[in-house]
Amino acid sequence: xxxxxxxxxxxxxxxxxxxxxxxxxxxxxxxxxxxxxxxxxxxxxxxxxxxxxxxxxxxxxxxxxxxxxxxxxxxxxxxxxxxxxxxxxxxxxxxxxxxxxxxxxxxxxxxxxxxxxxxxxxxxxxxxxxxxxxxxxxxxxxxxxxxxxxxxxxxxxxxxxxxxxxxxxxxxxxxxxxxxxxxxxxxxxxxxxxxxxxxxxxxxxxxxxxxxxxxxxxxxxxxxxxxxx
Length: 229
Ligand code: ADP
Ligand code: ADP
Fold this sequence. Notes:
By secondary structure, this protein is an alpha/beta fold. It has helices spanning about 45-50, 75-80, 95-100, 105-115, 120-125, 145-155, 175-185, 220-229, and strands at about 5-10, 20-25, 30-35, 60-65, 65, 80-85, 160-165, 190-195, 205-210, 215-220. Strands 6-7-8-3-9-10 form a six-stranded mixed β-sheet, with helices on both faces. It has a four-stranded antiparallel β-sheet with strand order 2-1-4-5, covered by helices on one side. Helix 4 (about 105-115) crosses helix 6 (about 145-155) and helix 6 packs parallel to helix 7 (about 175-185). The radius of gyration is 18 Å and the shape is globular. The chain starts with a strand and ends with a helix. One adenosine-5'-diphosphate binds next to strand 6 and helix 6. It is found in: Cell membrane. This is ATP-binding cassette subfamily B protein.
């Protein structure tokens, strides 16, 4: 499940200023589509439209053939897992952060998700009250560790559709490579929409679309686009 289709989508936050101009693409179930392009191109806007944070002005967006305009936001949230660039963690155990909002999950399921996200045992067993925030005042978990927690949290939800929104762009290059390996592994098993700045981070995608100022200016596989560079 989780197949996504954007069909001639036009959207502007302000109807007078169109941001997405006639955007069409399709992600078959189980495939990975990457959206790359410069800052301000409209990549995150596409992700927000998918959650129905905003309604489009014209065109249609479907998930598994169903028009999202006819679906509740709650069921969209259940169907889509997002790994954000920068997740804010609670000052509590890592297990708590993974399981937060997933009331039905057992400890075994949390541990399985942690394992799938390559979280080291010692991080999972950090005591309650350990400062897991990352920021100016409490750098306790590294950026990479925090991203593993965000990934485990998403895996626990087991959504048919995964959105990776610049999920590694806040990391240093070595950590980025490590986290990309984890992401590649989990995206192989489900429908995935990857939002990224650079082509080099989306080598594995079945299709890449290049967005510039709200228009798809190129599409193809990684090798095709690198050749055209
Ligand atoms: P990207 O993710 O590719 O960097 P965005 O989708 O964030 O691009 O932004 C696309 C355009 O929409 C930009 O011109 C940006 O200024 C504008 N934009 C983004 N969010 C809002 C908003 N909440 N209200 C108005 N304009 C916005
Ligand atoms: P669910 O609604 O099932 O928990 P998600 O895991 O996709 O689905 O949503 C994560 C929750 O975390 C949402 O309540 C959202 O508001 C919140 N969230 C999303 N992105 C961030 C972020 N970057 N930092 C902190 N919280 C976030």
